[in-house]
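Hey,

Quick one before I head out. I ran the complex with adenosine-5'-diphosphate overnight. Inputs first:
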Amino acid sequence: MKDIQDIKIGLIGGGQLGKMILSEANRMNLKTLVLDSNKNSPCKNLCNNFYIGKLDNYNDILKFGKRCDIITFEIEHINIDALLKLEHIGKKVYPKPHTLSIVQDKSKQKKFYNENNLPTSKYSYYKNLNDLFLNIKNGIIQFPSVWKKTKLGYDGFGVKVLRSEKDTLDLPDCEMIIEEFVPFKKELAVIVARNFNGEIKTYETVEMEFNSFSNQVEYVISPSKISEELNKKAINIAIEATKKLDVIGLLAVEMFLTDEDNIVINEVAPRPHNSGHFTIEACPTSQFEQHLRSILNLDLGNTNHDGCAIMLNLVGGEGFEGNVRYENLNEIFSEENTHLHIYGKEKTRPNRKMGHITIICDKFDDAYKKAKSLKEKIKVKAI
Ligand code: ADP
């Protein structure tokens, strides 16, 4: 294998996840190339070479990939045919295009879980709205249930809980799945890393608290306040999913802990994930360094986490759109063991992820109190 200093790492997507990967890559002086459609993306000044291109465009991805030795990504919505072509001509694409092609499509993802005995909620697939309405008429769809666009959804955009037939009236006409509504106690996540040699390491199971208005993750708490038995069960499911999807790199596995104490997979993401940002300060090896180690087929690092960490997302405030202005950021620095991350996006819009804060504490209650109080003080507005 080439020495890591001689490998050109290509990163598709130049957003905040890319920025945090680059911060680890830069610490080790690795060579990095980034492709994004936005010339002002957070990664633009942090890599050796920055290229502009469309991530869903075959030629843009192919041209970019040919410049690199290893190609990875920080976003799922990428032209798969181009990634397959790059793999075919001998480039290393990690996670593999085959893995990504399953994850990109929620209907393929659910089918994969069923075929591979991975626990998940029941679902059905509909090719368009007419198909859906026909099945509602036939009494096949029960309420409540959950509507999901099969492709291009993110951060809850493309998901809707259907409480009655009335909720279907403003759905867009596209391919979709309808999932059984899962009554759950908690939403959990486990991040798994796997390298080419098959070495596997996982982080602790975390729990995610959602904002009830936007339905987006507001706080990530590590470790999750669940029994050791449930923690082990969640980790085992995540490892099984990683092996079965043949992931090289990271896999973030989002799960529900149901009211009956079962654990079922909601969805997975083959990349660093919001639920692992706390690892930057809380663990000897962050998820971003671990991602690089995995795709470079290096030994994986220590993922231990003692104590408690809470990550709080800073998202664009309701009613603000335009050039971003943060309020009361200075407040963070009077708190001990509290770390600020601002992603460097020029423009805000409601609920856009603009940054995060990680609080490291011995006791959960102290960290939670601090997180709530910072959430009240810090506002993301527009000029
Ligand atoms: P996205 O890919 O946009 O993040 P998810 O599939 O994770 O979308 O769904 C967003 C949120 O919707 C979940 O975090 C959960 O709170 C809720 N949700 C999704 N699927 C179900 C389900 N089957 N039952 C109950 N709630 C669900």
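Residues 228-244 form the longest helix (17 residues).

Talk tomorrow,
K.
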